[in-house]
Target: Low-density lipoprotein receptor-related protein 1-like
Amino acid sequence: MVFRLRGPHNRVSRCPPNEHQCLGSDVCIHMSKLCNGVPDCTDGGEEGPHCREGALNCTLAGCQDNCAVTRTGSMCYCKSGYEIGQDGKTCKDFDECTIYGTCSQTCTNTDGSYACSCVEGYLVQPDNRSCKAKNVPVDRLPVLVIANSQNIQITSLSGSSSPSLYITTKQTTAMDFLYVQETVCWINVGDSPAGTHLKCAKITGLKSFIEERTINISLSLHHVEQMAIDWLTGNFYFVDDVDDRIFVCDKDGATCVTLLDQELYNPKGIALDPTMGKVFFTDYGQIPKVERCDMDGQNRTKLVDSKIVFPHGITLDLVNRLVYWADAYLDYIEVVDYEGKNRHTIIQGLLIEHLYGLTVFENYLYATNSDNANMQPKTSVIRVNRFNSSDYQVVTRVDKGGALHVYHQRRQPPVRSHACEPDQFGKAGGCSDICLLGNSHKSRTCRCRSGFSLGSDGKSCKKPEHELFLVYGKGRPGVIRGMDIKPKVQDEYMIPIENLMNPRALDFHAQSNFIYFADATSFLIGRQKIDGTERDIILKEGIHTVEGIAVDWMANNLYWTDDGPKKTISVARLEKASQTRKTLIEGKMTHPRAIVVDPRHGWMYWTDWEEDPKESKRGKIESAWMDGTNRKVLISHKTVLWPNGLSLDIPQGILYWVDAYYDRIDMIYLNNTGERKTVYDGPELSHAFGLCHYKNFLFWNEYRSGSIYKLDQVTKTVTLLRNERPPIFEIRMYDPQQQLGSNTCRANNGGCSSLCLATPTGRSCACAEDQLLDPSDNTSCKANPSYIPPPQCQPGEFACKNNRCIQERWKCDGDNDCLDNSDETAELCRKRKMLVIKFNCGLAVSNP
Model:
């Protein structure tokens, strides 16, 4: 018998005992075939002069059983079932159970042999090695459930299908089933996040899909790559490969919590073993890997992070506790145990290119192929014997195959009881919001919905008396998140604001629970409540590059800096912002960035950074009354060039800022002394962006690395709170206690009909750009008949439909410079082409 090594990894692929590896090959032959006069290796290298020369050595070797002559000398070997001991001569029992695939399930080693058996729910087959799952009920045969771009279809394991067993879907790749409820669930992908939903349907008796329903999920499912159902609790686990997170929702979708969102860079596949309390997932971002964590997200462990590039599909052998995954770049299926040990290659090569979904049942692995490069209308669903890869078959073909599962009771084995069983009040595990299994089905963790904290009893959820958390924005993907001010705290304080591009600026209004944000790429200012509701755009027109925003919580106004062509600072009411906006300051700035306001004393402060550190240029921090008057330079110093983040401690009268060029945090007392100090300039600072404070603590984030730090100003201790994928932008402390106090504008808007702007002497009433303040009362506004709206763009620029301005010469050049293709429309380019033709013909050029 010739044995072929099945794997490129020398550390896990070796010849069985009593066999010899042919030189330069992955072929093993039995040692009895060495020097037998017949070339068994391809090159015949086991035969040759060394056989005659080494024969005498064998007679002197003192082998207990047998001796063979190799190129390197004599070597003892044993009869079947035994292997050579450490002395190289005597034989000892060989444990066949250490070899992958000796038995399909349970393997018991015996002296010189072994015995295979099967666990409960399986039957031993005639080969005394394989196990076949019992059908429950008896007449319910195992079937394949396959998701693809057009439908979910049910097919026999051999590939035959019934036309009635399918349901039409839209771009579905994520799908799983709940056997005990005879239900299949999937994500129906719409054209937008709002149009993407989780759907479920019954497949009672495998006759048809019936009772289709939609489960409303509070978090966006638009970028979910895969999903898995915990069949013990009914919880849904989702993998989002754009927002780089794994989150879990209860069976009704009412409560969703983040499981993991750190050190995930492109998560793809997920598989659950709730009987053991384990989640397994693949990630092929910066560090491709296969990982494991408990069902509540704790005890995260890397299983595989070498010789792996694009791990995608993942599935579990629940009996043997094995993890199988497919690498879509290296084109292999491999396996390790739950501890990441005993790695083994199942199959590799052209037969399994670009695998996507993966599942296992009995002796076979099933997979979908996602490769559309060959322009074939169908992709393959394959089956391969996981113990003999030559047993390979194409089961069927589908349109862009996604997830697939073997629908059978043994793929979701029940347990007698688990820790998330409903209590007498119907609460899973006694938890107020959501119950997650822990590191086994006998342990559990209660988690709370966004905005609530877990009580001391470990079960109840309550609204904190003093909401306090960090809010920050990041890009790639664009999202705004909340987090605790202490590391490793799982409470979720807000529903993330998702589907953004470049959320560089943000602030909050505690009384209304709104987070306000500016998306510099989408040219808008928007808002969303911390519970995820009331998302809307408050300003779109005339927005260029908003770099900083600040909420005046007393007058309910919003201030922002705009690093567009005019370099402005503007204000508008939080409600009806587009009807009340007014430019307060324009020009004499290079790059206005962060802004903070002090409505108690009527001042605002902003940073202005310089690009070039040469020519003695300096950045600066300016101040003005909140009506735009009394503007002055507060700080302009040789150690100020890129002042980025600002934080204002109003009670203490301290203004903090961080400089991203000089990598330092400084402060100035805003009293008459104007004393300035360096707070911190340690090695953690390396292009900081945002800055905020709480009591004696300062918090900042690093634009390039994505790190978020906390500084104790008393002890000078720096704590790393979180590592995000960069870039990372503004950070704010959501602290309602910082938005207290009153001023003239607080009551009845200061008597102003539109804008009430605080000043050190009281307040100024102001009106929108297209209005005038009525001189008869200086509080009401009236239309300005001579108002001319400013042009969207400067001379020589083209106005995009999304308010972006580009060079006139860039339109119709084949590039999407506007980012909305409005510079490349057929009508626009046809007119431009006609003008060029007229010009080339010597005709007068004029606009039609």
In short: Residues 826-840 form the longest helix (15 residues).
